[in-house]
Amino acid sequence: MYINREPRFYASVTYNNSIFQGGNMSAAAPITFYVSGPNGKNGHPTDWSKTGYLVRKNVAPQTNAGSGGTGVQQNRPLILFRLGEIYLDYAEALNEYDPANGDILKYLNLIRQRAGIPQYGAGTNPLPVPPGKDELRKKIWAERRVELAFEQQRWFDIRRWKIAPQVMGNLHGMNINKDGNEFYQRVIAVNHLFRPIASYWFPISQYEMDRSRLIVQTPGW
Question: Alpha helix (H) ranges present in the chain?
């Protein structure tokens, strides 16, 4: 199930039996999330994946070497706003304003070219160009979901697109209470709740509410 995924999957996700070097590991080795594995529920009862997956993106190997976060620390710049996000923002806005503009595919393809995957109507083994504004919008949304994964974008995207109630649901993962093939049984890991009114807004803090009787709390809160 983890074979022949696109490159961004392997760069973003640590899955069962993927190779990684972190913590107090002296060399790269397979990460095992089976219940009895060294990285599973019984192997580290206070720190284990609830889904059978971990985020790999932006995590440098050996960053947390040693117990308690001591040891080798890898310094890196904090990303505030990166070029890929600018390209995707521009392509999305342009598709809504001027869907025939060639810059939409140009900048969408720049993202895909960097990822090493087929482009729309260009490059080697090109994909068909999405026919029309609505289909292109779907491709742009899908590209944002993959390219900006684990970058604190998805939650805000699905709310501004007003699709949160349709795409939110129970969070699934592998069966972390099992070994062997039973581990790969898809189970519910977390129950998600999306309240159609309240979840589109942030609440006003009680501190601010107490300071003024004129403030009205956000709807749903």
Answer: 7-12, 83-97, 103-115, 133-147, 154-160, 164-167, 206-211
Cα distance between residue 53 and residue 163, in whole Å: 25
Residue 206: alpha-carbon gap to chain centroid: 31
Residue 175 in domain: no
Residues in the chain: 221
Please compute, for residue 87, the number of CA atoms within 13 A of its CA located in the half-sphere on the CB side. 19
User: Residue 117 and residue 8: Cα distance in Å, rounded?
Assistant: 9
Domains of the chain: total:
2
pLDDT at 72: 55
Would you call 169 helix, strand, or coil by DSSP? coil
| 184 is a domain residue | no
For residue 126, being part of any structural domain is answered with: yes
Asked whether the beta carbons of 35 and 41 are under 8 A apart, the reply is yes
Position 90 confidence tier, pLDDT thresholds 50, 70, 90:
very high
Per-residue pLDDT, 73? 58
pLDDT value at 173 more than 90:
yes
Distance CA 8, CA 57 (A): 9
The pLDDT of residue 63 = 66
Structural domain that includes position 215: 192-221
Using DSSP, state whether 194 is helix, strand or coil.
coil
Q: Is position 200 within any domain?
A: yes
